[in-house]
Amino acid sequence: MKDMKELFSKNITKLNVKTSSFLTISKLQTYISSLEKEIDDKKWEMADRIVTQWKENQTIPEELIRSIIAEIEEKEVLIEEQKREIAAVEENQNRILGVSHTETASPEGVETTGNEAAVKEVIYCSSCGTANPKTGNFCRNCGSPLGK
C-alpha cells in the first residue's frame, strides 16, 4: 500500500511539473508569435512607406527606415530571450523529472544554423531549481549563490 501511495504521489508530481511547464512554455510561445507578427507588421509598414515615397518621386527618408529596423531588431532580441526562457523551463522540467543533467545550447555569441549545437554543463540552483551556466556564481532567476 505504501508503494502504491508513493507511485501515485510521484505521478501526481510529474503531472503537476509537466502541466506547469506546458502552460509556461505556451505563454512564452504565444508572446513569441505576437512579436513575430509585430515584426511582420513593421516590415510591411516600411515597405509601404518606401513604395509611397517612391511613387511620389520623393527621397526615402533613411532615418525612418533606420528607426523601423531598430524596432524590428529590438523585437528579435525579445524573441531570443523568450526562446532561452523556454529552454530553461524545459531543462528545469527535465531536472525535476530526472531526465537530463546537461543542456543543449549554442555557445554565447556564436550563431548556429540549427544543425550544430554545443553541450554546456549547468548547475542547478538549490533554492529555485533553475538551470544556470556552470561558470555562474549566482542564480539567474532568484539571485541565490550557486554552491560549487
Q: How would you characterize the overall build of this protein?
A:
The protein is mostly helical and 148 residues long. It contains 2 helices and 3 strands, in the order ααβββ. The chain has 2 domains: 2-100; 101-148, no CATH class. It has helices at residues 2-55, 62-97, and strands spanning 102-105, 118-124, 131-133. Strands 1-2-3 form a 3-stranded antiparallel beta sheet. β2 (118-124) and β3 form a beta hairpin. α1 (2-55) runs antiparallel to α2.
Which key terms come to mind for this protein?
single chain; 148 residues; mainly alpha; 2 domains; three-stranded antiparallel sheet; elongated
The fraction of residues assigned to DSSP E strands is 5-15%
Identify the strand order in the major beta sheet: 1-2-3
Query: Which percent bin holds the helix content?
Result: 55-70%
Structural domain count: 2
Mass-distribution shape: elongated
- Low-pLDDT runs: 100-119
- Radius of gyration, rounded? 22 Å
Structural class by helix and strand composition = mainly alpha
Distance between the termini: 40 Å
Sheet with most strands:
3 strands, antiparallel
